[in-house]
Amino acid sequence: MPWLVFMLLMVGACSPPNNPIDSDGIEVVVLGVAQDAGYPQVACDKECCRAYYRQERPRQRVVCLGIIDRDAKSLYMLEATPDFVSQWHDLQEMCPECNLQGIIVSHAHIGHYTGLMYLGHESMGAKDVPVYAMPRMRQYLHSNGPWSQLITHQNIRLLPMADDSTIVLSPNLQIKAMLVPHRDEYSETVAIEVSSSCKKMVFLPDIDKWEKWDRSLGPYLAQIDIAFLDATFYSGSELPGRDMSTVPHPFVIETLALLQSAPAHDRAKIHFLHFNHTNPIMNSLSINYKEVEASGFNIAIDGQIHHLENHCLDF
After folding, report:
1. Does residue 10 lie in a domain region?
2. Domain enclosing residue 220, as ranges
3. Among 293, 277, 296, which residue's Cα sits nearest to residue 285?
4. pLDDT tens profile 191-247
5. CATH number for the domain harbouring residue 125
6. Which of 135, 183, 197, 229 has the greatest number of CB atoms lying within 10 Å of its CB?
7. What is the pLDDT of residues 45-72, one digit of tens each?
């Protein structure tokens, strides 16, 4: 399929929309949906990546969400990815009068923090950008170059997060970190709740398996409005010859089975992301993509906007 036709099918993918957006409120913008290594992945000679080089599928940026607080004229990024340059540009374009007021880092895997390098004096030369991180993550950045140089040059200012503790960013915006089980070689791993005065969203791109979490996913979904969840692999058959226990994630088919009896409005809250290059639901033309949507779930697309309204309506 020609590149242009495919891009038209991927509505909103890879760039922010040009249509006017509400002048106030909290918006959450999808700025990337791929697993840490992006799509296409380096050294991949599989059909999934060959499709990109044949111009049949578009590149996909590494998973990242942007937050726009228009009332406070503030921008935040959930994760600092290798695609930080274009993600920062797109977010700034959506609110030119807003300033970057913080980056929230979930853990120390390459797709989630290495974009901090662009804040350094070789690039942006930023001044005191707040970076919110858990204790082991802060220690890792303090103790290892080149990240420690960002601190000594005052490009970034590390601010603490703690498990299940709320941080107020503005009168209408707050975040909360929640520990999740994952491969924690260098840091903890957390999910991030983002709340306005009306709605609550959770960003959970990495977790080992749902049964290892100290929360039950179904009841937890009843408490929130939007959920961006780990969908690294569709099933366990994507990496033949690889021991999948060394890269544990909840397979999409496991999440679908776990929530098959959940109310339709709870299933509709879920937006899958963090796709490995092998994951068939990264391709909107695949049978698996259509099956996920037919089951009442959503698949995140780069450029999508979700509103966390500040002004609640009483009926």
Report:
1. no
2. 25-308
3. 293
4. 999 999 899 999 999 999 999 999 999 999 999 999 999 999 999 888 877 777 777
5. 3.60.15.10
6. 229
7. 999 999 999 999 999 999 999 999 999 9
